[in-house]
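Reply to thread "Modeling small-molecule complexes from scratch"

Following up on the discussion above, here's a worked example others can learn from. I took a protein sequence and the SMILES for pyridoxal-5'-phosphate and predicted the complex. Inputs first:
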Amino acid sequence: MSIEISNRLASIPFSSIREIFEEANAMEKRGMKITHMEIGRPDFDTPIHIKEAANEALQKGHVHYTSNNGIQELREAIADKLKRDNNIMVDPNKEIVVSVGCKEAIVNTILAYINPGDEVLIPDPAWLEYQYIVELAGGVGVSIPLREEEGFNLNPEDVRMRITSRTKMLILNSPHNPTGAVLPEENLKELAEIAIQHNLLVLSDEIYEKLIYGEAKHVSIATLPGMFERTVTINGFSKAYAMDGWRLGYVAGPTALIQPIMKVHQYNTTSATSFAQYGAVAAYAGTQEPVREMVKEFDRRRQLLVSRLSELENVSCVVPQGAFYVFPSFKGTGMTSKELATLLLREAQIACVPGSAFGQCGEGYVRMAYSTEYEDINEAMDRLANVLKNLKVKG
Ligand SMILES: Cc1ncc(COP(=O)(O)O)c(C=O)c1O
């Protein structure tokens, strides 16, 4: 007997990040040491005051369903944070839904607004989940190329050219996974004009907001004139507070946009985990020193990785300004990104993600996460340089 899967799932593959991950794990089981640069999460522990707050909540018996949109204390802490850091004013009672990770907020938003056949503009390369979540909803993802020579910044003209009568939503992710690009305010202003002119809903995924370096500045598109009413801002705790396993995120925006998202959330997960939410209150209301320390260390690794990559022949690299990824091009080697990622894993014991896993425009690149120790990165780069040197000798 065979039971068919739904049509909406038929064209959707498992994540190709998994393949590299599984091969790396198998190599480790055989006793090899692998430098993990494929994983998109901080290698730090959750700060202690956050863990203590969640522990205390457990001890106090906060073990039941919470209000669907999240505990009042957390919604208030989120509203304060959005006002303080982003200049976004929202009512904690009607304009925030706490979700099981950012990912749930993204799924809920897309399910709430995308009809079969609706087109959603998605940068390419990007976190591939956007494309598949849109497909799950019956929508059509339209890829907008990001170019290395433009610093991987979304070019508003590329967006304008792809708008049709079916275009409903624009997805933005700044700082960006996988390139680390931070969208400059000038680009955001032009994108805002386009969104207003064509009545688009903007989903702004700001999960990497706190991981930003040098002169780069994070601007929330919801704060630009005329944008609040058409923007849902999505953020969470996974990256900045090393809380990816806690599965906590949120969506914020005007009541009219948030309430339909709330409806999907109600039928999806009811509420995020109760005691985890108390930990998140401490994350936002407590000291930000651990975040500053983590960002400082990421910046040190970022500079190391960029400088080591820039020594290599046939490799080019845009200096990332945010997140914890570098997205170097290996086009000069003539290899596909999958061939290269496989070679790096097998010959240099470096696990990284082929750029093609993030869309067609990622071909020729690999994503290297610097969420691994400084010394490990340095040694991994020695091995990488050797592999490329041998490749040249053979070629
Ligand atoms: C761009 C982007 N958005 C969202 C997420 C998911 O975040 P969360 O752990 O809050 O679901 C990730 C995780 O890698 C990401 O890279």
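What I'd highlight from this example: The chain is about 40% helix and 15% strand. The chain has a mean pLDDT of 95. Questions welcome below.
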